[in-house]
TrEMBL record:
<dbReference type="GO" id="GO:0009236">
    <property type="term" value="P:cobalamin biosynthetic process"/>
</dbReference>
<dbReference type="GO" id="GO:0032259">
    <property type="term" value="P:methylation"/>
</dbReference>
<dbReference type="GO" id="GO:0030789">
    <property type="term" value="F:precorrin-3B C17-methyltransferase activity"/>
</dbReference>
<dbReference type="InterPro" id="IPR000878">
    <property type="entry name" value="4pyrrol_Mease"/>
</dbReference>
<feature type="domain" description="Tetrapyrrole methylase">
    <location>
        <begin position="5"/>
        <end position="214"/>
    </location>
</feature>
<keyword id="KW-0169">Cobalamin biosynthesis</keyword>
<comment type="pathway">
    <text>Cofactor biosynthesis; adenosylcobalamin biosynthesis.</text>
</comment>
<dbReference type="InterPro" id="IPR035996">
    <property type="entry name" value="4pyrrol_Methylase_sf"/>
</dbReference>
<keyword id="KW-0489">Methyltransferase</keyword>
<dbReference type="InterPro" id="IPR014777">
    <property type="entry name" value="4pyrrole_Mease_sub1"/>
</dbReference>
<keyword id="KW-0808">Transferase</keyword>
<keyword id="KW-0949">S-adenosyl-L-methionine</keyword>
<dbReference type="InterPro" id="IPR014776">
    <property type="entry name" value="4pyrrole_Mease_sub2"/>
</dbReference>
<dbReference type="Pfam" id="PF00590">
    <property type="entry name" value="TP_methylase"/>
</dbReference>
<dbReference type="InterPro" id="IPR051810">
    <property type="entry name" value="Precorrin_MeTrfase"/>
</dbReference>
<dbReference type="InterPro" id="IPR006363">
    <property type="entry name" value="Cbl_synth_CobJ/CibH_dom"/>
</dbReference>
<protein>
    <submittedName>
        <fullName>Precorrin-3B C(17)-methyltransferase</fullName>
        <ecNumber>2.1.1.131</ecNumber>
    </submittedName>
</protein>
Length: 247
């Protein structure tokens, strides 16, 4: 039996034009597709005769176990993530599941990068992450809030541009407000902030505001919040962080 293969595929923000060519190739080469049920419709145009396995939220481990099971049968499988597979997505969990099942070396693995949410949102805003920047998830499902608070505090001290993933949900409505309060210890009240909902997808919404005026009520799980550093500025409809060139 031939050795199976798992592609950990990042499909980007969700629109066809923002997928990578390698992601398209990997999905078309696969005999099986495993993914979160909300993401599968985003690649329906690539589904022909592949066997599709749709799983719900909070079943990330089960998705990886399914992909591994199929690959151990000699099949080629695409494990689907939105954005980039290696950024708050499925690639890391996949490697952990393979290790736990003593399957390292028993299947081939390829991580297929994609356009991540922070890059997509930044493009819609202009050029806000041109200088040193960090990504922080406000989800405390897997990371204690005390650790997230520390990350926010240190990023604020370090004057990094900050991309906030998972800024708000029904279960944690106050996390973004709390994050804003932490960052205001280190940032000016008029620090530029970009809010992008559904970045590079249908229904995209882009808003530029300030840290003090950040409208937390408008933010949801499909939102990226980009907080500028001390040099970030608003240029018309764009948010720009200078790289430091002498002009």
């Amino acid at each position: 039996m031939k050795k199976g293969k798992i592609y950990a595929v990042g499909i980007g923000p969700g629109s066809r034009e923002h997928r990578t060519l390698r992601a398209v190739e990997a999905i078309k080469e696969s005999t099986g597709i495993v993914g979160y049920k909300t993401y599968i419709p985003l690649i329906e145009d690539l589904i022909e005769d592949q066997q599709v396995h749709r799983l719900g939220m909070k079943h990330e481990v089960e998705r990886c176990e399914k992909a591994l099971s199929l690959a151990l049968q000699g099949k080629t499988v695409s494990l689907i993530s939105s954005g980039d597979a290696g950024i708050y997505a499925m690639a890391g969990i996949l490697f952990e599941v393979i290790e736990k099942n003593n399957a390292l070396g028993k299947v081939n693995i390829e991580v297929v990068s994609g356009v991540t949410a922070s890059s997509a949102a930044a493009a819609s805003l202009g050029a806000p992450i041109m200088h040193d920047h960090v990504s922080i998830s406000l989800s405390d499902l897997l990371t204690p809030w005390s650790v997230i608070e520390k990350h926010l505090d240190l990023a604020g001290q370090g004057d990094f541009v900050i991309s906030l993933y998972n800024p708000k949900s029904k279960g944690r409505p106050k996390h973004l407000q709390n994050a804003t309060e932490i960052l205001l210890r280190h940032r000016r009240k008029d620090t530029p902030v970009g809010i992008v909902i559904n970045a590079k997808r249908e229904g995209e919404s882009v808003k530029i505001t300030t840290l003090e005026a950040l409208p937390t009520e408008e933010v949801n799980m499909f939102t990226m919040v980009l907080i500028g550093n001390s040099n970030t500025k608003i240029l018309g409809d764009f948010l720009v962080t200078p790289r430091g060139y002498d002009l």
